[in-house]
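Standup notes
- DV: blocked on the single-chain target, sequence here:
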Amino acid sequence: MKKRGIKECVGKKYIGWKCAEGRYLKRILLFAMIAALLLCGACGKGPKEQGTEENKAEGAGPGETVAAGGTAGKSLYEHGLEVVALMAEMAGSKEYVELYTSSPELREILSSVGAGDFGEPSDVYRVRAMEGIGSVLDMAKIDSLSDELRANVASKMFAALATQINSMEGTAALAASSLCTAEKLFVSGELTGNEIYLYVYENAVPVAVTFTKGENGAVAARGIFILYEEFPAIQMEEAAEFLEGFGVEVERIEEK
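- DV (later): unblocked, structure below
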C-alpha cells in the first residue's frame, strides 16, 4: 500500500511550511499556555466518589449519560472521535482560525487541514509507554529522582509525544497545531493507564488523542493534529517502528 503523507492526503496540495513571524508565535504560545493551565486546573478538580448521583451529574458532559459505577456509557474510542470532530470544526472554520491568528501562513496550513475528511477513520492505533529498557525513563537517565517524581516526568513526556513529532516539521507546524487542540473531561472505568489513540484517515492528517487517567475514574482527553509530513501513519508496522524511537509501543485497536 502506498504510504501517504500530508503532502498527498490534505486537499491534494502541498504547503511549504516556513517559520512564522515572531509576533505571531508569541501570541500563539501565550494562547497555548493559557489553554494548558485551564486544562490542568480542570483536571485537578476531578469527580467525586464513583456511583453517587452527584458524581454522575458532574462526570457527564452535555447530553451524555454516566452509567452505573460512574462510568460514561461511551468508549474511549467514541470520546476520542468527539474530540476529533471538534478539532475538525475548528480547523474548518475561517472565523475561528482568524480569531486566533493573523498569520497568512498559519491560516493557510489550517485551511488545508480543515479541508480533510475526518469522517470514519481508516485505522486507529493504541499507543502506550514502554517499560524497562527503551522506555522514556530509560532514555532520560533520571535514576536519581524519586519514584513519584520519575512517574510524573514519564507522564509529562508521554503526553508531549504529539508535540515532539510536530516539532520535527518546524515552528509553523507546531504553532498551527497548538491553535486547534481540543479537550474533554469525563468519567470512565475503561482506562487503566495513560494512552494515546492515533486516528488515521485516508484523506486527512492523523489525530492523536491523549487520555490521561485521574482519580476516581476521571479521564482528561486532549487531541492534537499530527502535522509532520513524513509521519508514516497509514502502515501500522511503519508507525510502530517510527514511534519506538520515542519510547512507546503501538497496537491496532480491533474492538471499538
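- Follow-up: The first strand starts at residue 66 and ends at 67.
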